[in-house]
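Convert to structure. Protein one:
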Amino acid sequence: MARIGLKNFRFSKLDANEDVMKPESLGKAIDCKVSLELNSAELYADDGLAESDYTFNKGTVTITVDDDDDKILAPLLGHEVSEEGEVVRKDTDVAPYIAFGRILTKIVAGVYKYKVEFLSKVKFKETMPDEKTKGESVEFTTVSVEGTVMKKANGEWSKTKTFATYDEASEYLDSLLTKAE
């Protein structure tokens, strides 16, 4: 299995009951890095490992998008955007909890597959992009945002599922991000 692509950063805000609201796009996906912090406890007895716990504690997700569109990123970070398009950041702003997903393209035994990777509860934090002047040649820079991955009240923190077609994967991701009627 070789991962060869990344598409469709999508998210949905979570309500007070940790239910998703409606899917929204974060722009075009460039990069996604997830790192996990696991509980690590080991009990030794009779000169050997008798019990262990390596369960999920929390994680970090860092995503890079093609455009730092204020209409998307500002609300994701808890900021308001005026009708004139101005973003005002306040020290009292609180980023909402969201669910976040993406689709990975893979090749398995010469066949394309599409894997949905979904994080059930994430809270993004403020970040400032690196900037530089244009020199003798143009160099693209992008924006990354980092969030904390956590468990929902029921203990769920992630879901994954692989599909034969991109359309099936996309429908599944949307279903995870859409409030059930």
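Protein two, convert as well:
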Amino acid sequence: MFRKDPFITGEYYHIYNRGVDKRVIFKASKDYERFMMLLYLANSEESFRLEEILSRQHKTFDEILVLEKSEPIVSIGAWCLMPNHFHMLIRQEVDGGITKFMRKLGVGYSMFFNIKYKRMGALFGGLFKSKLIGVDDNYMRQLFGYIHINPLELKFPEWKDKISKPSIEMRDFLESYRYSSYLDYLGKNRVENNIIKVEKFPDYFQGHQEFKDFVENYFKET
């Protein structure tokens, strides 16, 4: 299956996909960590064997996310992993960059998942979805709220319909959720910060507190 329109270098895209038949694609913390390592390593022209790095070089999760690699082929501005789907905000840096990155990411994770859980066949529901975003489009700014607030569905599934402002429990839950770039925008010191490249995206937020306020105000705007 091929895309009708090619990705444009220098443009921004909302990229997302889910498990085939909406099935779970992350069953354990190690699954999430595997995908995060791939988010980092797959973002270059170089080929790599993650299993070899883990088993033969005995690299840890933290060590892998600081490995030297060639220039990135995409810039990731935001990301979030959920049990059966993921979201990313991406800028293409080289021609064909998004396609190469997503192929390496998808194939690498699918092989890992199928071997680990002794299954066969496609893991994701077809070709990943994408939406072109303009830099002057308010949609990109809103994506920083939408992508990072996604995890609330796990513990507060009815928040969109019944909640006009976040509770302390909701704030605490978002700030405890490892599997997104939310903590990186709050200024937390963690190795996952190496996945994103904020300088390649519009500077919508002046500091960590303004970003936090924006995400929390997303409740009222949704």
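The longest strand covers residues 74-82. The first helix runs from residue 29 to 41.
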